[in-house]
Design a protein that fits this description.
single chain, mainly alpha, three-stranded antiparallel beta sheet, 7 helices
Length: 160
């Protein structure tokens, strides 16, 4: 992919203010949303780190440790330790693949399925709370702007 647009010139090094940076604002927003999701899921026995793999497994039914780590941007060793905790809570189990005995898949248990059902409810509620006052067209535009920034990021990655 080639870059179709020249870079913007909105920011200047000599006048750069972190509080006015789109990147800073997005990072702060992600931090606040993450904290709020954690607060909503805490009564259901899930930490911030735990709901991600449960949600991913609920959508895809099974995944390897490496797939979960890659999709959730975690170190595979940290993912293994996290899955150890989820398995100890009875929320997931490791199952050796019948096709390739070297592969170990992670699957939700019935308790894990019940816990993971709480995740979309929390995500929807938190996102709606943070979008209070937005019109549907503003919400649609915001998603479009963010997608465009991600496309720019992909194009930059491809150029490197």
């Amino acid at each position: 992919m080639t870059r179709s647009q020249p870079p913007a010139d909105f920011y200047q090094a000599d006048a750069y203010q972190a509080g006015e940076s789109v990147g800073y604002l997005m990072r702060r927003l992600v931090q606040v949303i993450t904290q709020d999701i954690g607060k909503r899921l805490e009564p259901h026995g899930m930490t911030h780190a735990q709901w991600g793999p449960l949600f991913k497994l609920r959508r895809c039914k099974e995944a390897t440790v490496a797939e979960l780590a890659r999709d959730l941007d975690m170190d595979p060793g940290a993912m293994t330790r996290l899955l150890d905790r989820l398995e100890a809570k009875g929320l997931c189990k490791r199952v050796r693949s019948a096709v390739d005995r070297r592969v170990v898949n992670v699957e939700l248990t019935p308790d894990g399925e019940a816990a993971s059902d709480k995740v979309p409810e929390a995500l929807a509620a938190v996102m709606n709370d943070h979008l209070a006052g937005f019109s549907k067209s503003e919400w649609t535009a915001l998603k479009g702007y963010l997608r465009r920034m991600l496309e720019n990021a992909d194009a930059l990655k491809d150029l490197a």
